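User: I'm curious what two different proteins look like when written out as structure tokens. Can you demonstrate?

Assistant: Sure. I'll show them one after the other, since each token string lines up with its own sequence. Here's the first protein:
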Amino acid sequence: MASLASNPKLQLAATAAVSAVLTAAAVLSYQHLQRDDRVSRLKQSIPQPNDAEPSLPQVTRIGPLPHMDREDEHNLALAQRAQQGDFDDELVLEQLARTRAFLGSDEALGALRRAFVVVVGCGGVGSHACAALARSGVARLRLVDFDQVTLSSLNRHAVATLADVGMPKVQCLQRRLVAVAPWVRFDLRLQKFEARVAGELLQGWDGDEGSRPDFVIDAIDNIDSKVELLKYCHDRGLPVISAMGAGTKSDPTRVMVADIGASVEDGLSRATRRRLKLLGVTSGIPVVYSTEKMGEGKAALLPLPEEEFQKGSVGDLGVLPDFRVRILPVLGTMPAVFGYTLANHVILKITGYPMDYQPAKARDKMYDGILAYVQASEEKIVRMVEAGQPDAAIGLKVPITPGDIAFLVEEAFRGRSAITGIPTKLVLIRWKKPQQTTLVRIGEGKDEQKSSNLRLRDLVCMTKEEATRHQKEILQGDKGHEDLYSREVIEVVEARQKEVEAYERYR
């Protein structure tokens, strides 16, 4: 310290260093304040969503735009004239001339113009599907979505602008599309799709009980709502097509249409298939999905950063309480590809234009065969445990369906033996030897019902040869799993069983 006090050069250097630090701090502070000010002014210049917590009454119809500009007023007046018939049909036909030429007949175009399509989910994917349908001639569109346009929506939404931020997505679509196709009639539903209101949201146009939608488009990214919608449509024979995950995808050449039983390489598709199979739906629903594989350097679904959780009130980041909170990387072009593919499929189906998509795996016979194998194996176990009752297995039922078999084989065990990874001649068999009776009796005499207490998590996928050895050595013998299988195999089986247990609650 003494040398610093007596050395003018050192004093000058120290002063310069301190001055540089203070100057840098001042500059950084100024830049930070400027950035905050710019962000604040930008936010103030954009209409914000209602500060109140979104409410979801059973059916919420959207009224007129709260603040219409001159263009809105002009478009609305034109739309009212068009929908009242005061619009030259030749102008409509001229606008649809290219579609008419492609379809090849007035009948096909007429079918499209009479069509009634419901679009559930009006974000990146749904908005592009809706826009394509309106431009192609579909004259009745019911739009279902509870969400509002946000700044982050603008990288992928088909029509939203900065002026639409804070507006319900369904209303934003109507606002922009009436300027393109004023003859299109919109039925707007500001609502989250749920099974309890499915009948209202998918009813006929204007509540007509004698009619129903010509097609339903599922563009929902929430698993529960998606499964409820697809199950409802499947059970009632409503034509439906579903969009799988466009997030994290980047290759438009890998997007295709296939039956849900054949879709692969897609997390949302896999989760949807699992839930539907447990509900007995194994095929019959076309889906748009990507075969693109994940790889090093590619975008991936990201968890919310830990610092956001530490701030508290994580629920405030979601659109609704208890709704999924995650960071989903999305390249803005891919939702458009998915949305146009959905609309393309609907247009061709409604007009009867020739088309084919990849068929579902023809594995129903295989599932029936595996179910028969499970039945026979359970009967052997009952006869073994109930040795003193030779008729105990007669009339035995197993609480397993072909949908359960499909789920276990294709989803839980990835279509392979858990023992060797072999993908052929697969069966399902109990993993553990029962320590007590597996027989469940209800009633007496001729009204008696016999069933096995088998659960999905009890079964493991093997080849037929492996299962024969497993039955003899473990289920009917005295050997343990460690005597037949490696620690790695046992860990794989246990991991699969935990997955199955988690999904069993959706049965």
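Here's a second, unrelated protein for contrast:
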Amino acid sequence: MSHALGCDLVALSDIAESVEAFGERFLTRVFTAGELAAARGDTARLAARFAAKEAVIKALAVTDEATVPTEIEVVGAGVAPTLRLHGAMARRARSQRWGEIVVTLSHTDCHAMAVVLAEID
């Protein structure tokens, strides 16, 4: 069995600056309603979810294609979040024969990170 792996690190200040500059337009373009509810406006939680989206894109090896951030959704909060893929991202994962996907999120005072590991059937 093989795997696809992606990871990403995000500065909390980058997310805070985007929220300050673009407000709701940024938030609704990047995050689903469920992600916004789970994050409850916490910049570190938003940044971790953003990092997870980037980690999925890396694991899928998307290089020159536009992606829709809301097609990658971090579901749940707390100890064991999961990922839900929609639209083109779900189709790409199916075409690469992705099976189970695991995600881990973490953050400090200044950075958030995510690692995504998908089994390939």
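A detail about the second structure: The beta strands are 2-11, 72-75, 82-85, 98-107, 111-120.
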